[in-house]
Amino acid sequence: MASSADLKNYQASQIKVLEGLEPVRKRPGMYIGSTDAKGLHHLVKEILDNAVDEAIAGFGKTIQLFRTQTGDTQRQLFLAHKNNKGKKADDKELGCQTITVVDNGRGIPTDLHESGVSAMEIVMTKLHAGGKFEETAYKASGGLHGIGSSAVNALSSLMQVAVKRNGKYFYQYHSRGIPAEKVKEVSEEEIIAKFSEQAAAFINYESGSMVQFVVDPTLFSTVEYSHKQMIQIVKDRAYLMAGIYFQLFDRIENIEQHYYFEGGIRSLVEHLNMSRKSLHKVFYVDNTWQDPETKKIIGIEIALQYNDTYNEHVESYVNVINTPDGGTHVQGFRLALGRVMREYAEKNNLIKEKEAFVADDLREGLTAVVFVKMPANDLQFESQTKSKLNNAEAQTAVYQVFKDSFATYLEENPKVGRIIIEKVLISARARLAARAAKDAVIRKGLLEGVSLPGKLADCQSRRAEESEIYMVEGDSAGGSAKQGRDRKFQAIFPLRGKILNTERARLDKVIASEELKNLVVALGCGIGESFNIEKLRYHRIILMNDADVDGEHITTLGLTFFFRHLRPIIEAGYLYVAMPPLYKITQGKEEQYVYSDEDKDVLIAKILAKDPNAKISTQRYKGLGEMNPEQLWSTTMNPKTRMLKKITIEDADKSDDTFSVLMGDDVAPRKKFIQSRAAMAQLDI
After folding, report:
1. Has residue 47 got a pLDDT over 80?
2. pLDDT at residue 317 above 80?
3. Which of the following is catalytic: 473, 503, 508, 657?
């Protein structure tokens, strides 16, 4: 209960009103999701998507994205303009990178708004302002509530905006969301002087917009843009926007890339299935649906193709905004897919029982892209980061359009229908077999943790956050690891030889493997439907194998197992690879360990530089078993001195492709992959 003192202290003076863009700077995560690398790249998406929205609306065919180092022009603006704290830019800000987006759309309106200032300034400085609330300007767009441009402005130390309309140029610049001047008409020469290379194409357009910003380094944990992520951002939009040219100019990496896909999302599905064996040609539908009550129109594009793998890959977009968490449009797609497949199978007597397969069985080997285009003012997302669509009408629209079109496609292509049904039924049989195998194991009490496998040398701690488990191949290495470990928090799980390649193994085969079954029991988190990461007994799972070809293969098998069947463990940051030394360098009584041939040469040269007559002994470790327990502890297991590689998933699509190539059945692509990367692999040891 609040005391009288608490009530007295809580007065009107404590109520703060955040003006203008202050809320964005106070709580940036509410507007862009986070202030880490993900949030940083979200800023790029917001500005790029404004250009894409123009293309969706039918204006503009070319979009350019530049990443450059902050130049002299930006430096002069920094130094000339005081920010909202009355402090001039510092060296950290002057050293940031610059992002510029150029398009040949209609150009941001520059005439006076009813509020008394230029519409261009309103768009860049006011939350919930823009042309996407009414369908007169944008019938479909990725922008939400007019927050995008103004939020980026608020989180930038500097933002320059140029517009070309009716043969005239207009310009304004801002610092931390505050305009330094009013929108003014400028000459072509001034535009070139302020934007240099980025203005080259812009001045030749009949109309367009050019937005340049330098992020505020005081608000972000990193200000280094990733070239790979920039490519992905551009590529995603190029696939969706068939017939639109995207140009990426990365002057930091000195790389220039152009993207243009006439096939749109059909090309994207083909690309996603590139390293897999497709079972049929890509199915594609492009149609519209009209709401019978509101008469509003929703555009639907869906591309679908099954492959021979056991994994699903479904991507979804709303007005070119990626929705990684899906939403109502994906729900409509899944419901229609299940309905069509079941009706087709029953009509053609391809299944014996009505419940022969369930929704999950339809997912094996499915690659699809669901793309909807909706009126901008109707969009309902879960948050400003737009990861999940909530519009109920999107589900109805996708369901009806896809259901009718795909049902017709299967009737016209009965061979494809039978191939897909057979694929689904195989998945159903495997699911039932896996359930039976799992139930049999549970009946024995193994997966419930009643008894741990006898081969596990467990640690004393029962706190997962401080416990770690080493997966070690071989009796010799396992024995050394057991003797050398710290029993308080280190557990050892010895493996006998190479584990099952789980790239193409369903759950029933995984559970049937004694080694993998025991490992799952040891981890305690279950697998498949029974998986629960809260029950994981160790928060560091370490693959520790010999530093040779066989050891690397065993490590890859382990990575494949976790990626295909226990991916949440990787996503949580709990999987590691140990880095045992390659060499022991001995000079007199002094012993030093190195982890690569290059490090060995550097160390030897350093020793000889001090003493040209030094006697140096070099021992190459062929396996962990050659080390005694003390050496294994000091080099590979001691948290104070060891080296661990933390396994992360930066790009799930590329990771998926890599495992498919390396661990799949096709020899040719695997051989090409290894040969093309052999030199890099040696350097990375």
Report:
1. yes
2. yes
3. 473
Is residue 659 scored above 80 in pLDDT? no
Distance between CA atoms of residues 202 and 209, nearest Å: 8
CA distances from 629 to 476, 624, 632, 636, 638 (A): 10, 10, 5, 10, 11
Average pLDDT over residues 430-443: 66
For the question of residue 6 being annotated catalytic, the response is no
Choose among 278, 269, 259: nearest CA to 371: 269
Pick the closest to residue 308 from 280, 330, 350, 335 (CA basis): 280
Per-residue pLDDT of 509-525, as tens digits, reads: 887 888 888 898 899 98
Catalytic residue among 550, 591, 597, 599: 550
Q: Quick check: 348 and 417 in contact, CB under 8 A?
A: yes
Between 29 and 608, residue with greater pLDDT: 608
Task: Please pick, among 46, 236, 361, 546, the residue that the annotation labels catalytic.
Answer: 546
Q: How many CB atoms lie within 10 A of CB 509?
A: 16
Q: How confident is the model at residue 332 (pLDDT cuts 50, 70, 90)?
A: very high
Residues sharing a CB contact under 8 Å with residue 177, sequence separation 6 or more, in sequence order: 20, 21, 24, 25, 84, 125, 150, 153, 154, 155, 156
Instruction: Give one DSSP letter per residue of 241-260, joined into a string.
Output: STT-EEEEEETTTTEEEEE-
Rounded Cα gap, residues 532 and 530, in angstroms: 6
Question: Can you tell me whether residue 179 is helix, strand or coil?
Answer: strand
Question: Residues 386-424, buried b or exposed e (16+ Cβ, 10 A)?
Answer: bbbbebebbbbbbbebbbebbbebbeeeeebbeebbebb
- Asked if 508 is an active-site residue, the reply is no
pLDDT in tens, 345-368: 999 988 876 557 888 889 989 999
Told to judge if 346 belongs to the known catalytic residues of this protein, a careful annotator would answer no
* Superfamily for domain range 22-259: Histidine kinase-like ATPase, C-terminal domain (3.30.565.10)
Q: Is 548 a catalytic residue?
A: yes
CATH number for the region 446-581+621-649 comes to 3.40.50.670
Which top CATH class is 265-435? Answer: alpha beta
pLDDT at 87: 52
Residue span(s) of the chain under CATH 3.30.230.10 come to: 265-435
Q: Which of 312, 448, 548, 552 is an active site residue?
A: 548
pLDDT digit string, tens, across residues 256-280: 999 999 889 999 999 989 888 899 9
